[in-house]
Specification:
- With 501 residues, the protein is α/β, with parallel strands linked by helices.
- Helices cover 40% and strands 22% of the residues.
- The protein is globular.
- The N and C termini lie far apart (56 Å).
């Protein structure tokens, strides 16, 4: 049965319709509901977490704080469903994934509009992420139809072969920066490889997960295969990852939370862990670049989604011979093209606004130069808006250089040669991603293969082929996902040995 709220939201697929709805809906603020065993469940017995529209700063929804008992019910539903779902054919699972992807595509504007309202991103950015969510289901729906395995012969003795089976019930926990895209990046392979799941989106951005539950209902996915619960990390997330019947966890979020998950699951040695954590990613700009193209690539890598992407290049290092020219052209491009409300959205929450502001106060204290931007007011009155900010003159050991700010703030610093550039790039506890800008083919490999990052983009950024491994090095997490790497996360492998006849 459809949720009353979901039914009401379903036709509000433009910003105008959505904003009108928020002023006329008689049960305001909106109250989200868990989705367990193909049923939307009342959250009236739960405490609520307030959810604010980042673009206005106004309360617009209540997110249920799911209790450990509610989490237990969802896990048991997933466990019961696993017995049947794990035995379905790949072709059958593929059809379900294709159906889910098609329903998201049919409702592209609906998801983009509410993602923009809920997260603060621009509508155009929301559309990009909805398209990528569709791609997640499309890719894994076909990947599982063409799986390969390995067979080996021991001459005259035995034949051995690898056999995989679904691992069980998974906890899928996604962050607030790209809510739908990153949640579906986990859901699609989990279901494709025969696992069932309890998904928990960030309590800060839960709306599109709620809408996704309605898509799952319309797709007629068997009961309990995918359950969605809402809540925070300390209560809901903790109960989910510690649950003994949860056989694996795919988490994307902050490093501190990732560390806590490892601590919480230390006694459950059987749990599969895939943790994609923070990044403080370098962009290296060498003097041989096409400067116009390099500036545009570095700008996109720094300020897309108002810098709230774990893969953003927030530390830019420029070879000294072009440093001043680069800073001038980069600042000009950002000033002219990255405008608030058109290209740059609001940051996600008041808490995050204050975090970003604290780094800008530190930059002022450390006498850094604001090439662009300024310190926003302490008490925002009409949404959480922070102008794109470009800082120079920041020391390499500053917290501004070393810690993930995760907002529309970038630093630029010079370097002399390759060795210094590599040293600066790697001088950080994180190692998620990087950007290398050069026209020297030998340097692309010479430098690129020494950068301590799971992803290295050369003369481009955010290009993804979904079969490639996604994940970082160092403090940026453990495990990789994508194609066969996702198969490793969501399946168990055994080797069978058959004697020769």
């Amino acid at each position: 049965m459809a949720s009353l709220l979901c039914s009401a939201l379903w036709e509000r697929n433009t910003l105008e319709k959505a904003h009108n709805f928020l002023t006329t809906w008689k049960f305001f603020p909106l109250v989200l509901e868990n989705y367990v065993s193909n049923t939307f469940t009342s959250s009236s017995d739960f405490e609520n977490i307030p959810s604010f529209n980042p673009q206005t700063g106004q309360l617009y929804a209540h997110v249920p704080l799911s209790t450990p008992a509610a989490v237990d019910s969802a896990v048991l539903a997933a466990e019961a469903a696993f017995k049947t779902w794990s035995k379905t054919t790949r072709a059958e699972r593929s059809k379900y994934l294709q159906r889910i992807g098609a329903l998201i595509q049919e409702n592209r504007e609906l998801f983009a509009v509410w993602e923009s309202i809920d997260q603060g991103k621009t509508l155009e950015r929301g559309r990009v992420e909805v398209d990528r969510a569709v791609s997640n289901f499309s890719y894994f729906s076909t990947y599982i139809l063409h799986e390969e395995s390995s067979v080996r012969m021991i001459d005259g003795v035995a034949l051995t072969y690898e056999h995989r089976s679904p691992a069980g019930v998974f906890a899928l926990i996604s962050p607030w920066n790209m809510p739908l895209y990153l949640l579906t990046w986990k859901i699609a392979p989990c279901l494709a490889f025969g696992c069932t799941a309890v998904a928990k989106p960030s309590e800060v951005t839960s709306m599109t997960a709620f809408l996704l539950a309605e898509v799952i209902r319309q797709a007629e996915l068997p009961s309990g295969v995918l359950n969605i619960v809402f809540g925070d990390g300390a209560t809901t997330g903790s109960a989910l990852v510690k649950h003994p019947k949860v056989k694996g966890i795919s988490f994307t979020g902050g490093t501190a939370t990732g560390i806590q998950i490892r601590k919480d699951t230390a006694a459950y040695i059987y749990k599969h862990l895939s943790l994609e954590l923070g990044g403080k990613n370098p962009t290296l700009v060498f003097a041989d670049v096409d400067l116009e193209k390099a500036v545009a690539t570095a700008a996109m890598a720094a300020f897309e989604n108002q810098g709230e992407i774990c893969l953003c290049g927030s530390r830019i290092y420029v070879q000294s011979t072009i440093y001043e020219t680069f800073v001038k052209q980069f600042t000009s491009l950002i000033s002219e093209n990255y405008k608030l409300r058109s290209k740059v959205g609001a940051v996600v929450s008041l808490q995050h606004y204050q975090k970003i502001r604290s780094y800008l106060l530190l930059a002022e204290k450390e006498r850094g130069t604001f090439e662009l931007g300024s310190i926003p007011g302490e008490h925002p009155k009409a949404g959480y808006w922070i102008e794109p900010t470009i800082l120079t003159g920041i020391a390499t050991n500053s917290k501004i250089m070393r810690e993930e700010i995760f907002g529309p703030v970038v630093t630029i610093a010079p370097f002399e040669g390759e060795e210094e550039a590599i040293g600066l790039a790697n001088d950080n506890p994180n190692g998620l991603a990087s950007v290398l800008l050069t026209r020297d083919g030998a340097r692309m490999r010479r430098v690129g293969e020494r950068i301590e990052a799971g992803l290295v983009w050369v003369n481009c950024w955010l290009v993804r082929e979904l079969g490639t491994p996604f994940g970082g090095m160092k403090s940026s997490g453990v495990g990789k996902e994508g194609g066969a790497y996702s198969r490793d996360v969501f399946t168990n492998m055994r080797t069978l040995h058959l004697p020769s006849v």
